[in-house]
């Protein structure tokens, strides 16, 4: 109760602020899918992320870019609860999720992929996706052990949904292969499929094109667009590949040394002299 | 049919057939008492090793305290069966209740121990489970339970005093051990083994089992898809402990007198050897490894007494070599080269065969 | 007086644990593995000392040299044959291999030396106690009881073995600390334990450094073996396993990877063990030692002096 009381005024205050702004700019009046306010984290004496503000609208494809060590993955780790921010707040669909555990945050609707792929290596491709559906499956462990009807019904449903998802990424042909045996590009896709299996509102992709050749990147761009449209997804991605960023992101935030360097529409940001300097040096 | 289901059916069917065949041979009087005794012991070890495989293979954590859970199951079940039979309950009922009680007690302890232990990983978890195993052993080395007409009397480090001599019934006698009624026979072991096997298989092939494997493979990714890591680790650890408790109960009732020090670190390691050599995560492997590694030295005992002495030495060497063979980059590369060569010659055969046809 | 005597015995046993724990903690710090066979190296050292001391041709000093040499070589060989090929393998495989090595050593000892415990002759056999305190007469150092004729018995006796264990351990710890902080090889060890990859890039020979670590750890185990078998004059193939595990507990207690931590942890654990043996229950002392470990890991998983390590995401 006390937590509610603590949170409600903040959320309300936030909503009115958003509404005011929305009225000013005469855009859509709905609250943003993700709102990050003054997010900071400190490791010892180092401020890895300092006062970051983000607003991502529903159905948007948003890019977070910046040179190496700018704190992009740290932002993801805070958004997904791996790190607890030192200060600032994160709202998902108007709900304050700051400081919650990774499990709670996933349940409230954020799913992610990892820069260094983290698949369940000793499990099959299909099982990797089914693990993602864990929380939407409605049978208990006891029902599973006793093999009651609900087990079979739910497992069947789960398998069908998982195969459907794998089809989107053209992985259904390899559903029984060990995930560790997939080629690199497919491992990245499987990670996205697994994240989608948790039914998120917001998908965070950490360098989805890393290690891919231009053709694979091109294909990945189409897949990302397709996922956004098919699942009505909001996507925030970290990327180094400028072709991908300029090709699919609608808005960008550029981080440099943990601070926001520029924010706005993709083409404007990419032509900003400050951004060019940060990337290419003086 | 799914591959997992098929695999499970083969393992279960094979075990069932083996049990039935051995049982029929035994009933027909074709097996001597030594072999029957061996079958009982091996059955108990299989229950222990398959349950440990849940922790080591499926959960990916090395537990060195499995004997501790067998110890709880053994002594708590002995207390129940002795009291029930003394109170006039039929043997079969007393034994069934005792086994279940032993499993439940082991599960409760497993859960309680699991709460702190499952916060740890790797080496720390191994050493702490070892510590718990030793603690449980020393506890039962010091617990005395005696019953008389006034009820139960407990003693810790010393036997309880003021016991009515005429109705005195010593149940747990600290380091002197416990003499439980001789109730374990081959059929009971086979039945418990098959039930435990079903539980393990259905657990592993369900969403909970998948969650455990996901945690094993990458716990950070598992958290990121909403899996409560601690919950599933605790669940598997508790289940593993419960089944070990049942194995302990059977073990207790198969020997004339059981000393707590039998459930020491060496027993945990012996079971671990079966699990590792059988293959981590493979129940079938654990079953086969237990049978082979336990039975062969015993059967060879008749030929040469010394073989048994060399048993652990040979296990140790196999263990080291297997780990090196499976994990050392040198051997992995060598294996892959051989594989590639085989494939090449195979495809070469096929193409040449095709040409001939 | 009995409390002081117990405390001293505890510190003496603790010094031995500390020596063993140093081996664990150094290996853990640098090779990032739990060397389960470390305890069994102690056992081998015990047998080496036992056999050479029983031989007529061998003076005590030579037998000590041989013991240390045997353990050192054994430690290095084990690392080279069993652990080095698995350096980048999953921790579970390494741990199982280490358990295999431990079992191998135990069973070789069982087959060659039989399971019967043998009586070990203390290296201080025949020497008078280090200290005897008599009520009303004061203390006597390094002498047999001078009041024997009066029938006066000491109220506090500190045996030569107890004294030696403490003194030798202190000397070795000081030497080790100096070695690590002042020499090039010692600093290379620190660098490897901090970041093996970076150390390699800086031109440090990682393989040689790890071998050196195993060599030092095993040599310390040899010294511990002699001190332990002198204080508790018995040797069997299982002699090493419990002290080995307890010393690991000590290393965890002090904070694994930390050298001062191993020393403090070892001494504390020895004191806890002896005091609980005397004041609580001799049969439960092992259980109490493990309880200490468990409580420690729950309250402060990194140990007294340990650093927090978290996985990079």
Would you write up a description of this structure?
The complex is a heterotrimer of chains A (282), B (357) and C (313). Chain A has a 6-stranded mixed β-sheet, with helices on both faces. A 4-stranded antiparallel β-sheet of chain A has the order 2-1-4-5, covered by helices on one side. The termini of chain A are far apart. Helix content of chain A is 44%, strand content 21%. Chain A has 282 residues and is α/β, with parallel strands linked by helices. Chain B has 357 residues and is mainly alpha-helical. Chain B has 2 domains: 3-303, no CATH class; 312-357. Chain B has a 3-stranded antiparallel β-sheet, covered by helices on one side. Chain C is mostly helical and 313 residues long. Chain C has helices at 2-31, 38-54, 60-83, 91-113, 160-182, 184-194, 196-201, 206-231, 241-254, 259-279, 285-299, and strands at residues 118-119, 131-134, 138-141, 156-158, 234-235. Classes of the chains: A alpha/beta (282), B mainly alpha (357), C mainly alpha (313).
Assign the structural class of chain B, choosing from mainly alpha, mainly beta, alpha/beta, alpha+beta, or little secondary structure: mainly alpha
What sequence of helices (H) and strands (E) makes up the elements of chain C? HHHHEEEEHHHHEHHH
Helix share bin of chain B: over 70%
Helix content of chain C: 55-70%
What's the CATH C level of chain C?
Mainly Alpha
Structural class by SSE content of chain C = mainly alpha
Enumerate the spans of chain B where pLDDT stays under 50 for 5 or more consecutive residues.
353-357
C-alpha termini separation of chain C: 56 Å
Counting DSSP E segments of at least 2 residues, the number of strands of chain C comes to: 5
Tell me the β content of chain C: under 5%
What is the mean pLDDT of chain B? 90
Mean pLDDT of chain C: 89
The largest pleated sheet of chain C is described as: 3 strands, antiparallel
The CATH topology of chain C is what? ABC transporter involved in vitamin B12 uptake, BtuC
- Order of SSEs of chain B: HHHHHEEEHHHHHHHH
Q: In one word, what is the shape of chain C?
A: globular
Q: Quaternary arrangement of the chains shown?
A: heterotrimer
Question: How is the secondary structure organized here?
Answer:
The complex is a heterotrimer of chains A (282), B (357) and C (313).
Chain A: H1 2-25, E1 34-43, E2 46-56, E3 61-65, H2 72-79, E4 87-92, E5 95-96, H3 102-108, E6 110-112, H4 125-132, H5 141-146, H6 149-168, H7 184-196, E7 202-206, H8 214-230, E8 234-238, H9 242-248, E9 251-256, E10 259-265, H10 266-270, H11 273-280
Parallel strand pairs in A: 3-8, 3-9, 6-7, 7-8
Antiparallel strand pairs in A: 1-2, 1-4, 4-5, 9-10
Helix pairs in contact in A: 4-7
Chain B: H1 3-27, H2 33-58, H3 66-86, H4 91-117, H5 122-140, E1 143-148, E2 151-156, E3 169-173, H6 186-204, H7 207-217, H8 219-224, H9 229-252, H10 265-278, H11 283-301, H12 306-327, H13 329-356
Antiparallel strand pairs in B: 1-2, 1-3
Helix pairs in contact in B: 1-6, 2-6, 2-9, 2-10, 2-11, 3-4, 3-5, 3-9, 4-9, 6-9, 7-9, 10-11, 11-12, 12-13
Chain C: H1 2-31, H2 38-54, H3 60-83, H4 91-113, E1 118-119, E2 131-134, E3 138-141, E4 156-158, H5 160-182, H6 184-194, H7 196-201, H8 206-231, E5 234-235, H9 241-254, H10 259-279, H11 285-299
Antiparallel strand pairs in C: 1-5, 2-3, 2-4
Helix pairs in contact in C: 1-5, 1-6, 1-8, 1-9, 1-10, 2-3, 2-4, 2-8, 2-9, 3-8, 5-6, 5-8, 6-8, 9-10, 9-11, 10-11
